[in-house]
Structure formats: structure tokens, C-alpha cells
Amino acid sequence: MTPPPTPRASEVLGAALGDAARRAGLDPNSTEDTRHAVWNAMGGWRGILESVLPSLAFVVLFTFTQNLVLALAISVGSAAVFTLARLLQKQPPSAALGGLIAAAAAAALALWTGRAEDNFLWGFLTNGVYGGAFAVSALVGWPLIGLAAGFLLGEGTAWRQDRRKRRTFFWLSIGWAALFAARLLVQVPLYFAGDVTALGTAKLLMGIPLFAPMVAVTWLAVRALYPAQPK
């Protein structure tokens, strides 16, 4: 009996990205409009609060009290409450759990160094990794957006033979890389300046306000490449 062929790395990565996009509510096969797709990608009101509240609590408390331990405790505590709420309601805790782990890791580093600005180093790392991944994938001809869309729409990697799709996925991936790079370009100088309030404010303003429009652009571009077939 002939053994099944070993999946290629692009197929495995595409499947992983596609599954992540589907769980986030970004399935181009769905009949949702752009507004609902973006809202689902952000996780609704709960997702927004899980993303914003820990950082907001840290910035506000540290700005007005200069008490690092208190600010970190409330920040990590709010992330823990969100995770516990999801567990109690038997909802997928992945988003809140990821936020809790990130908040706890960043807080541990800030407590170890005694520098409030080090609470943002984890964010720099994730932005650098994500931005680098999008940029490199586009430059080597395997943009991550294309891999995810190809899996979700049952096309695999056949989109690479279509110049229009290949170009669109390239620029979408470059756009995402630019978003992550912009965050670093603005926030890293504030980190070295030690301006915790400005750094935290910049993080909040460059979070969902940049993420949501980029999701909308990506969604619209992919839907334009794969128009719904009449039933």
C-alpha cells in the first residue's frame, strides 16, 4: 500500500493560518459583510476589552501613582479576570489566555528590572516577529495572506500561478508588515526616552485603531479576488 504523500511546509502553514483566520471570524466563504467580519476578528466588545483594558489600567495607574507594583498587579489581574470568565462560561479561552500570558511575562520583566517601560518589551518582540514574518513571506514569494486565503478557499497554493492574486497578497502582507513596523518606529524611541505615559498611549492608539482598518482592507481585497458564486 502506497503511503500518503507528506504534506508540504506551505500546506501545513496555510492550514494553520487558515484555521486561525476562521476562528477569528475571517472566513471569505461566509456571507458576512465587512463590518461584521471586522467585529468578529476583534472578538466583539469582550475582545476589545481584553485587548485594551490591561494596558489602559497600567498606563493610567502608573501615570497617577508612579507605583509600578500596583499598576502591574491591576493590569495582570484584569487579564486574569477575563480568562477566568471565559473558563467559567466554557468559552474558548485562547484569546484571553494569550493576553494573560503576555501580560504576566511583561510584568515579570518590569518587576525584575524595576523599569516601568520594560512592561512594553514583550509587545516590541511580538510586533517584530509578526512584522518580520509578513515581510519575509512576501519577499520570498509566499505571502502569509495568500497561504491563509488559499487554504480557506480550497485553492491551496494555486493562487501563485495568478499574477493578480500573487500581487494582491504580496501588497497585503507588506501592508501588515508596515503596520507592525510603524508601531516599533513610534514606540521604541519613547521606550528609550523613558516616557511611560506616552508609550502606553501610543500602544493603545496604534492597536485596534490600526488593526481594524487593516482587517477591513484585507477582507475586501480577498473577497474581490474570490467573488461569491451565484447559487
Write a structural description.
This is DUF3159 domain-containing protein. Keywords: Membrane, Transmembrane, Transmembrane helix. InterPro entries: UCP010219. This protein has 231 residues and is mainly α. It is 75% helix and 0% strand. The termini are far apart. The model has no long low-confidence stretch (mean pLDDT 85).
Number of domains: 2
Q: Could you give the distance between the termini?
A: 40 Å
Order of helices and strands: HHHHHHHHHH
Strand content: under 5%
InterPro entries: UCP010219 (IPR016566)
Transmembrane segments: 56-82, 94-112, 132-153, 169-192, 204-226
Organism: Microbacterium aurantiacum
Keywords: Membrane, Transmembrane, Transmembrane helix
Give the secondary structure arrangement, pairings included:
Blueprint: H1 9-23, H2 34-42, H3 44-65, H4 68-88, H5 94-113, H6 121-139, H7 144-152, H8 163-193, H9 196-205, H10 208-225
